[in-house]
UniProtKB/TrEMBL annotation:
ATP binds at residues 29-35. This is GMP synthase [glutamine-hydrolyzing]. Homodimer. Catalyzes the synthesis of GMP from XMP. Keywords: ATP-binding, Glutamine amidotransferase, GMP biosynthesis, Ligase, Nucleotide-binding, Purine biosynthesis. It comes from Agrococcus jenensis. Pathway: Purine metabolism; GMP biosynthesis; GMP from XMP (L-Gln route): step 1/1. It is an enzyme of class 6 (ligase). Its EC number is 6.3.5.2. GO terms for cellular component: cytosol. GO terms for molecular function: ATP binding; GMP synthase activity. The chain holds residues 198 to 523 of 523 of the full protein. The keyword Transport does not apply. It catalyses: XMP + L-glutamine + ATP + H2O = GMP + L-glutamate + AMP + diphosphate + 2 H(+). Residues 2-200 form the GMPS ATP-PPase domain.
């Protein structure tokens, strides 16, 4: 495609000029945006780029393995993994407000990068140069929805825009800032990334932290992770991945309802399925999933995840509902 080809050429030239001979780090989330941003920057500056994967403990089942295997195997990019699980759990303890969660997660992300940067600088003591550049896969809709566009209200602080701390020590490289998701995917394909990465559905940087309505705890994360894995497996098995934009699975951790499971009464939590169809995430409609698929997901979750005794379907378009619940 000549247009994506042009974008790549322009961005590569721009990144080279911007970054020069400095080193850059890029946080990989497992998602399309950061994967394409990193691949683009890798194209421009090669081994000056080091990718950092922060395991914040808010990931879905298997996600860490996928980043370490799929992405690294296909790009040859250098990857450092930071295990920040404990730190995030401590920072999020007792927090229930969505914006506060987002800001904490954004801040801890940057702290984790800074830690990685210090470790890398110490390791490369021979040249002693600090890492000055931070690559982010910020897209146009992220900019607009965080109030960075012209005249729009701040709807949510996306962790990579509104959630940045004031004392940020990095300068930002954001090569996807003018683009929509479909354009980013086209660029990923053009750069030779495997389809399993390029066609991956969006997943928010703050991860499962904003899909637990209420305080984030290890136990709740574990419950949500098992329910989410079932929903995703069934949607994939039904061949529906191409039809839905994404399907957040949300745990209403502070809501309980009475059920009857196995031998008796339970007092468990509801899980919300939020399947949406969208072009660019700016607007969305709820996806009319086949009833038999919904039935399978519901049966499996309530059978296999004892903490959950009710599965509900979100039938709200965006607007008024945003895609994520927080
Ligand atoms: P909302 O909930 O605002 O979501 O309708 C729009 C799209 O953005 C994703 N999302 C995020 N992505 N960091 C991200 O990288 C974030 O903080 C974030 N919050 C929401 C969401 O999954 C949907 O695709």
């Amino acid at each position: 495609d000549w247009r994506t080809g042009n974008v790549i050429e322009e961005q590569v030239a721009r990144i080279r000029e911007q970054v020069g001979t400095d080193r850059a780090i890029c946080g990989l989330s497992g998602g399309v945006d950061s994967a394409v941003a990193a691949a683009l920057v890798h194209e421009a500056i090669g081994d000056q780029l080091i990718c950092v994967f922060v395991d914040h403990g808010l990931l879905r089942q298997d996600e860490r393995r996928q980043v370490e295997e799929d992405y690294v195997a296909s790009t040859g990019v250098r990857l450092v993994t930071v295990d920040a699980r404990e730190r995030f759990m401590q920072a999020l303890a007792g927090v229930t407000d969505p914006e506060e969660k987002r800001k904490i997660i954004g801040r801890e992300f940057i702290r984790a990068f800074e830690q990685a940067e210090r470790d890398l600088a110490a390791e490369a003591a021979a040249d002693g140069e600090p890492i000055r550049w931070l690559v982010q896969g910020t897209l146009y809709p992220d900019v607009v929805e965080s109030g960075g566009g012209s005249g729009t209200a701040n709807i949510k602080s996306h962790h990579n825009v509104g959630g940045l701390p004031d004392d940020l020590q990095f300068k930002l490289v954001e090569p996807l800032r003018a683009l929509f998701k479909d354009e980013v995917r086209a660029i990923g394909r053009e750069l030779g990334l495997p389809e399993v990465i390029v066609s991956r559905q969006p997943f928010p940087g703050p991860g499962l932290g904003i899909r637990i309505i209420g305080e984030v705890t290890e136990e709740r994360l574990d419950t949500l992770r098992r329910a989410d894995a079932i929903a995703r497996a069934e949607l994939t098995a039904a061949g529906l991945d191409g039809e839905i934009w994404q399907c957040p699975v949300v745990l209403l951790a502070d809501v309980r309802s009475v059920g009857v499971q196995g031998d008796g009464r339970t007092y468990g939590h509801p899980i919300v399925l939020r399947p949406v169809s969208s072009e660019d995430a700016m607007t969305a409609d709820w996806t009319r999933l086949p009833y038999d698929v919904l039935a399978r997901i519901s049966n499996r979750i309530t059978n296999e995840v004892p903490e959950v005794n009710r599965v509900v379907l979100d039938v709200t378009s965006k607007p008024p509902g945003t895609i994520e619940w927080e």
